[in-house]
From TrEMBL:
Domain of life, per lineage: Bacteria
Keyword hit for Transmembrane helix: yes
Signal peptide: 1-30
Protein name: Uncharacterized protein
Stretches for region Disordered: 189-223
TM annotation in the entry: 399-419
Keywords: Membrane, Signal, Transmembrane, Transmembrane helix
Organism: Nocardioides imazamoxiresistens
């Protein structure tokens, strides 16, 4: 089998690099790529929700429950911290394993049984990625609000039911994470910028030197980055992630480029190995973003994604663009067929944040987002904040010496392992 030359060349290049970067201090910088779907926070409150007559109280922020397989539901309640707020509920899970079939549904009602909203999510067996259902109660256009909408907005307490969806059959119990966020109301939307069409994917024009920054395997501790060029690797049937902050008025463009492989390996891969890029909203949904993928072959593979522009009034459109600021998640994935003998692939991730941060709407209270118990913010933050410079923006730290050498040797070792794997076939 021919040598996978691009991988080995990149490993040698990394070993001889003159500068390198790491992620923010702490957990975000310690993430390593691993096969499978992205992880979710492990150190969060466990909630039972087994008694429909005594629903378990959900906290603001992250929590976690176990959902039975083919049957069964979980029952929760949530009490607003901000009167009239929009209550954003996300249910997300990696499934019993990274590519298992998975399906569930969340429903929000008032205590008198009025249905406010519901959402289902599913994944077929063999697919990769988080399963995410997200829905909102109390967030409606003031100009079109109905009696039911008003009831959901005014209710002090809400009921949240998590159940299995009938779209996919599974008999395996699985963990499901909740993320509950409140957004303060905006009483007058007449003077806000109009809704804008969702950004389209395309080549990303960004300058500067590429920096080594391995993506994280957990959405809450993925490296926090900004406009720039970042290098990493993604394992076969695996994903890596980066967090990027977007404010109102801003748009994110992302492009992951993987080097070409030689003709013999390309023939072995066929059309079974695909590089993908996508952007998840701060609620972990991809419904308001655009994405594309590309097969590995004798030409470089390019996968693209876009999110934005972030405008408050986008939420009321039929095909909305993102409407809430916060930490968006750029995900690079490598879908591989069952017979593909491939460990990992390097990529260069080109990111560009367009637009200046615009003023926030006139929220009834500020900061407008309740992101955890007793914690409020100007946007929906997903996890551990990165190191901050004087302007308050996230930065990555440049390192040298032993850390640089270790990074280069690790990259070289990875190339040697791949060389042995390919030549032993």
């Amino acid at each position: 089998m021919p040598v996978l030359r691009p991988l080995l060349a990149l490993a040698l290049l990394a070993a001889g690099a003159v500068t390198g970067v790491t992620g923010p201090a702490g957990p975000a910088g310690a993430q390593e790529a691993a096969g499978g779907a992205l992880g979710l926070p492990t150190d969060v409150t466990r909630v039972a929700g087994t008694d429909p007559g005594a629903p378990t109280t959900l906290p603001a922020g992250w929590s976690r429950t176990e959902l039975p397989g083919s049957a069964g539901s979980r029952y929760f309640s949530y009490t607003r911290a901000v009167a009239g707020s929009g209550v954003l509920v996300t249910a997300a899970g990696p499934g019993a394993d990274a590519t298992s079939a998975e399906a569930f549904r969340i429903e929000i009602t008032t205590t008198d049984g009025t249905t406010c909203s519901s959402q289902s999510a599913s994944r077929s067996e063999g697919d990769l990625g988080l399963v995410v259902a997200t829905t909102t109660a109390g967030d409606v256009d003031p100009e079109t609000e109905t009696e039911t909408d008003a009831s959901c907005r005014e209710a002090e307490s809400l009921r949240i039911t998590l159940s299995r969806s009938s779209s996919v059959e599974t008999a395996t119990d699985s963990d499901v994470w909740f993320r509950v966020v409140e957004e303060a109301p905006v009483d007058d939307v007449s003077d806000l910028p109009p809704a804008e069409e969702r950004a389209s994917v395309g080549p990303v024009d960004v300058g500067g030197e590429a920096q080594d920054e391995q993506g994280g395997t957990d959405v809450s501790t993925a490296p926090l980055v900004d406009t720039g060029i970042w290098r990493g690797t993604v394992p076969a049937d695996g994903q890596t992630a980066y967090r990027v902050r977007l404010d109102f008025g801003q748009t994110l463009y992302a492009e992951a480029v993987s080097p070409a492989v030689d003709a013999e390996l390309a023939a072995d891969l066929g059309y079974d190995t695909r590089l993908r890029a996508e952007v998840l909203s701060p609620q972990l949904s991809s419904a308001t973003t655009s994405s594309s993928g590309d097969n590995l072959g004798t030409d470089p593979a390019s996968a693209r994604a876009a999110a934005g522009p972030v405008q408050y009034l986008n939420r009321y459109e039929v095909s909305p663009a993102p409407s809430r600021p916060g930490e968006f998640v750029v995900v690079v994935s490598l879908d591989a067929g069952e017979d593909v003998d491939l460990d990992e692939v390097p990529y260069t991730l080109r990111l560009r944040v367009d637009g200046d941060a615009a003023a926030a709407p006139a929220y009834a209270s500020t900061p407008p987002f309740v992101i955890a118990e007793g914690e409020r913010a100007d946007g929906i933050e997903l996890g551990v904040p990165g190191a901050e410079d004087e302007a308050g923006r996230s930065v990555v730290r440049t390192v040298a010496g032993a850390g640089l050498v270790a990074g280069g040797l690790a990259a070289l070792l990875a190339g040697v392992v791949l060389l042995r794997r390919q030549t032993s076939r």
